[in-house]
Amino acid sequence: MTGDAFIVLGTPSEEQLQCDNHDHRSCYGYNSKACQERAADYWRSSNVMKVFNSRLKRLRLQWMRTPQPGKKLLVLDIDHTIYDCTNMLKESLHDSCRIRPHLSTMFSSLKEYYDYCLWSQTAWQWIETKCSLIGIYESCQSYPLFILDRSNMFSVGKSSNDQAVEPAAGEIVEVVRRNVKCLRLIWDSCPELYSEKNTLHIDDLHKNFGLNPKNGILVSPYRKANYDTDTELLKLTQYLLRVAKLDDVTTMDHSTWKNT
Ligand SMILES: [Mg+2]
Questions:
Q1: Domains plus CATH for the chain?
Q2: Which of 38, 125, 234, 240 is most buried, taking the most CB atoms under 10 A from its CB?
Q3: Which residues form the FCP1 homology domain (predicted)?
């Protein structure tokens, strides 16, 4: 790989290149009892079930590698979790700077215990580009099981007082929408392989855990400011090696993983 700048023809807007901005203030409580109850409320919403069922019906996982029975599943976000896409079209930084340090160490250390898939909030063509730059396709050993993009996400609604939205007829509710990565789409697509007991979702946006807070592991966003000092994936690897021994990953509170 080189650090040469490039132009992608037919590029969609830069909005599709990058995911949401971050608000890391007070987001470490994403697995609180209140958040778990909110997730349960979402699932009781007929609107959420309707959207979920339609997404599940159209989902066809494109397997790139054979899953290894008995291994747990890591659902890995891309942007700011393992790669920094900020100003990707404007700055010709060397690609190796943008790849989060210790990613290859993490993959090699965990492959005995985990398979992984990628799930990005960006459009498919950008995911392909980023995967190439990261080197995901350089060896079949590093292929993810499958890749999901923003089209596999959906939003769940909540009112301004943070309750699931079930407005009465004629009622006007101030709706806040949040896009989520719903792991149940994976679980219901291949129930013989994966469930909430053996799946972990690594992301730098806690809101993506909205429907599965018990399975989320929040990492700090990887950005240019910490290119030289970032050791998040080394610490995460040590944590995941400990979690690998659990029969049910939801028996641990992963929102406090940095304190354990
Ligand atoms: Mg991200």
A1: 31-158+175-259 (3.40.50.1000)
A2: 240
A3: 67-243
